[in-house]
Amino acid sequence: MTYIKNSFLEFVTTLEGFDHLPDAAIANLSEQVQAWRYRIGQKIIGKEGLSEHITIIYEGQVRLLGYDPHTQMPITLKLLQPGEIIGEIGLLRDVACETAIASTEVVCLTLNASAYFSFLALYPAFADARKNRSYLVEVFDILSLYWKQQPLATLNFKEAAENALPQAKIHYLPPGATPFNQLDSERVWFLSGGGTVTNFSPGDRIESDNNRDNIQVISQNPARLVGIHPSDLILEDSHEIVLAVSNTKSDSTEELDIPYASDEIVPQTPPPNLKKFVKRKIPVF
Predict the structure, then answer these.
(1) Of the residues 30, 139, 151, 218, which has the fewest C-beta atoms closer than 10 A?
(2) What percent of the chain is predicted at pLDDT more than 70?
(3) Pick from 144, 182, 186: which is nearest to 169 by CA?
C-alpha cells in the first residue's frame, strides 16, 4: 500500500504542540519526518538505551509495556492509538523507560531527536505543550521504584498508576539551588530525570533533611520532577496482576511505499537494568 507524503504532514500538524508550530517550522518538519512500517509483534522501542528519535503512531495499535516491580513480569499499560508518541518521554527524562511492540500492523512517523530538541528550544508554545504533561509510563516507572520497597506483590500496579496520572504534576528545576519549600506541599515529589541533582537519582523521592535546605541542580539541563498526590501512594492489595497479552500545506503529493523497520526480537525475559544516558540541553520556559 502506498501513501501520499502530504497526508503525513497534515496528520502531524493536528497533534498537541505541533499545531502551534509556525509555517517555517512546519516546512522544516516536512523534510524531517520519515515513515516506517512495523509487523505484528515487532519491537518499536526498548529500555536498552535512549531512542534516537520520537515515533508518532500513524496507523495501527502499539502495546506499551511496563514490568511488575516485584516479579519483573510484563504488564500491558496501554494500547497506544494513532497520534500518540513513543520515545518522547524517554528523551525528556534522559532515561530509557519505554518498551513498546506493534499489536497490529503499524505505520509510524519518526522525527530525529536533534530536530525534536531544536523545536523545543525555538518554539515556546510547542515546548510548553509537549514538556509540561505527565506520561503513564513515566508515573508507572517512578512509582514502581517506590512500590518495590512495599510488600504489595499482588497489587494491580497498572490501575494504581492510571489512578495517579490525572493528578500528577510536572515541575522543572533550573540549574542552581532551589529551596525545598518552593515545591507544592500538596504533592509528594520525585525526580523524574533531565538535569543532574546532587544526592538524588531518577526515581528518588525529593525530601529535605537537616543537612540541606536546597535542591541543587548541577547540570545545564533543568531537572524534571513529578508530583504525586499523597492519596495515590496509599495503596491496597487488589489481588490482581494484569499481564501483557503475548495552517501551511505541503505541495508534496509524492506517493510513498513505506519500508519495514529493521527486525528486532521482543525479549521473553525482562530487559537488563541498563540505562544509557545521552545528555541534551533542554530549554527552560
Answers:
(1) 151
(2) 79
(3) 186
Structurally, what CATH architecture does the domain formed by 2-257 represent? Sandwich (2.60)
pTM of the prediction?
Answer: 0.81
Q: Are the C-beta atoms of 100 and 80 separated by less than 8 Å?
A: yes
Distance between CA 202 and CA 193 in Å, rounded? 5
Residue of 53, 93, 114, 122 lying closest to 197 (CA atoms): 93
What DSSP string runs through 116-152?
A: HHHHHHH-HHHHHHHHSS--HHHHHHHHHHHHTTSS-
**Of 83, 108, 139, the residue nearest 33 (C-alpha):** 108
> How far, in whole angstroms, is CA 109 from its chain's centroid?
16
* Cell numbers 525475559: residue: 269
Under 8 Å CB-to-CB from 134, ≥6 apart: which residues?
A: 165, 168, 169, 170, 226
